[in-house]
Amino acid sequence: MNIEHARTFLAVADTGSFVAAAERLHVTQSTVSARISALEKTLGAQLFVRNRSGAVLTNSGGRFLKHAGQLVRTMERARQDIGLPKKFRSRVVIGGRMGLWDGVMVDWFASLSTEYPSVSFRAEIGFEPDLMQGLVEGRIDIGVMYTPQRRPNLVMRPLLDERLVMVTSEADRSLRPEAYVHVDWGAEFDNQFNASFPEFPGPAVTVNIGWLGLQLLARNGGCGYFPRRLVEAQLSDRSLFVVPGTPEFELPAWVVVREDRNASLVDPMVESLTRAVA
């Protein structure tokens, strides 16, 4: 069985859409359709019912779900183990949002090689859909993100609560809606922002990385919402200012691991991360 067919099946099952699966896997929708058709031919059963709302697993598809996950995880583990130098007994892959690596995870990650000299580590930066897909497939052992979606066989643990504050480059701390730089902190933030600022026009600039938003404010001026911990230095040197009277928003960060993880190895790492940010 082609492992990419199983990987594509998992993406469609997770997103509920051939289109969304194609975007996640960075392939065309026709490629996704061809892979699923080939898989259905191999198995001799229909796996999805396609309708206007997306793609829904059939009974056969639901039964194949656990087998597809096992296939992909087994292949990934085999690939990792075969390429693992002899001095290491295991490998751990850690993925996280760039904004969470910055100031939260880097020092912790740097300490792991000393604490676990017989373990090989891989660090990845990603957004929630890719991180979740990596966890579902077993390619990622520990995922750290803002807006995980609950999935079977995955365990979510709270890590920290970010406080998003509106900052501006204007020394008079005025709020200029036309200069607003929108950072995509997820659907929950978007809903809170739209409810609090119904009069704001659509942003001229939208970015999906907080670091990039800060770079734009430094170069062009403007305002935007950022985690307070990421802008403490700029607030101290008065290159940015908190806009008075604007609401603060809470943005929880989570650690996500698999239920069938190597708990004796992964759990102490997660606990040390939790202690590091406490």
From TrEMBL:
Which keywords appear in this protein's UniProt record, sorted alphabetically?
A: DNA-binding, Transcription, Transcription regulation
Start and end residues of each HTH lysR-type domain: 1-58
UniProt keyword DNA-binding present: yes
| Key word Chaperone present | no
Signal sequence segment: none
The GO terms this record gives for MF are: DNA binding; DNA-binding transcription factor activity
The text of the family note is:
Belongs to the LysR transcriptional regulatory family.
UniProt name for this protein:
LysR family transcriptional regulator
Q: Which organism is it from?
A: Oricola thermophila
